[in-house]
Design a protein that fits this description.
Helices cover 33% and strands 24% of the residues. Strands 9, 11, 12, 13, 14, 15, 16, 17, 18 and 19 form a ten-stranded mixed sheet that branches. The protein starts with a strand and ends with a helix.
């Protein structure tokens, strides 16, 4: 039996307050009034009062509106029919196809007990050398891409969605421009990858509060696919928009702000989503790759700062390329020793030489005379950037390793690289 409340004590922004001592946290409610209706969710309980976040916004809602608590959390339908579909931030079809109304599952549930997880052991191949070769993505890893506005992070995520060797892609967009949404949809559709993809898209024109649901919707669906034995990759963009929506709601509720106005539970809110990454024993796995834009390229901003404490490394996207310095996959050593016996040696050697190339660029800029070694480094750096760092380059891991050997052979003598003699004998190109 549903309980109905007919008096709103307060309306502030998109948050309503009612006297409801029997409400539960994250419970779903239906708010209705003569001119319309909207779903809402309980986001705070205090002294017998319940605060509800209205998905469609509170514009036009009178204090006499009826609030019916539904006795359950937000749910999303789950079945194989989800693949190839596009939904909005409230789980409604955005692709003008039929509504799915079977197999509902709760969203926002707890993450898997860490004691029940297994150690990551499988590489996720993306076809992007700066990830596969130098910062290997591992199944069940959670890895953010730190970037600034204007960088091609959406294009990078789209390429990963097309090329990643997984069985299911779940794409969640928060605060996307409509053009970006169309770019994701059309790119995946034209490449034939939409058939293995589920999309939950919140655009900048949609109610802000709906962006808070996108990660929970995406991760709930991903978890069910993983329990069926699927290898699932969850792509989320942009988690800073998600955090900004949290801040907007917290300000509306007059919560005491923390760093730069963000709510004090920002870390917990982010961790609750990132910790959904897991490798299930005897089933599939969930890998999470997100974009976090840094206002003013400030890595100490609360969103990237908190993210760095939760995740297992980060990728820095600058100047249209994944930077080799600062980018880190803390789990790569679990898998890159099992790929090819020269993987670690090539990875370490090429980054060391690229660091020397960066120092040579500084010497050149200050007018120092260039030695023969400096000239070799300059040639190497140019080739490395063009043939491996450029995001347009698409190579399987083995081809990327072979390309690395060719670049080294074109620029240096074997003894100059410091590579083990056994590997040089086996892999050094014969010119």
């Amino acid at each position: 039996m549903y309980k109905v409340y007919t008096r709103l004590e307060r309306i502030a922004g998109n948050v309503l307050m009612i006297q409801a001592g029997d409400a539960t946290y994250r419970e779903l409610a239906l708010v209705s009034w003569p001119m319309g209706s909207s779903l809402a969710q309980v986001i705070r309980l205090e002294g017998g009062r319940a605060y509800l976040q209205v998905f469609a916004g509170s514009r036009g809602i009178p204090t006499s509106a009826r609030v019916r608590l539904l006795g359950r959390p937000m749910q999303v339908p789950f079945s194989a029919a989800l693949l190839g579909r596009v939904f909005d931030g409230a789980g409604r079809p955005r692709d003008r196809r039929p509504v799915l109304d079977q197999g509902y599952i709760d969203i926002g549930g707890p993450s898997v007990n860490p004691a029940k997880r297994i150690i990551p052991r499988t590489m996720v191949r993306t076809g992007i050398p700066m990830i596969d070769l130098f910062n290997t993505l591992v199944e069940s890893q959670k890895l953010p891409i730190f970037s600034v506005a204007g960088e091609p992070y959406n294009e990078l995520l789209a390429r990963i969605a097309l090329q990643a060797e997984v069985e299911v892609i779940v794409l969640g967009g928060m605060g996307l421009k409509f053009d970006d949404y169309l770019y994701f949809r059309d790119t995946l559709e034209q490449a034939g990858a939409l058939a293995r993809t589920v999309m939950f898209i919140h655009t900048a024109a949609d109610p802000t509060v709906e962006s808070l649901l996108v990660p929970d919707l995406a991760l709930a669906v991903a978890e069910q696919f993983a329990l069926q034995g699927k290898r699932v990759l969850v792509l989320l963009t942009d988690m800073t928009n998600f955090a900004d929506a949290l801040k907007e709601v917290a300000i509306t509720m007059e919560q005491i702000p923390s760093n730069r106005g963000y709510p004090g539970d920002l870390y917990s809110q982010l961790a609750a989503r990132y910790e959904k990454a897991v490798d299930f024993e005897g089933a599939g796995a969930i890998t999470i790759l997100t974009v976090t834009t840094m206002p003013g390229d400030d890595v100490t901003h609360p969103v990237p700062d908190n993210t760095g404490y939760i995740t297992e490394g980060q990728l820095y996207l600058r100047g249209g390329r994944i930077e080799p310095f600062g980018s880190l996959s803390r789990l790569k050593q679990l898998v890159n020793g099992k790929t090819r016996d020269d993987h670690r040696a090539i990875m370490n050697t090429m980054i060391q030489l690229y660091a020397a190339y960066r120092e040579t660029l500084e010497k050149q800029a200050m007018g120092f005379r260039m030695s023969r070694w400096d000239q070799q480094l300059l040639r190497y750096g140019e080739q490395f950037e063009a043939r491996l760092m450029d995001l347009r380059v698409q190579l399987p891991l083995e081809a990327a390793l072979d390309e690395g050997w060719r670049i080294l052979a074109e620029c240096f003598e074997p003894a100059q690289t410091g590579l083990p003699s056994a590997l040089v004998t086996r892999y050094w190109p014969q010119v």
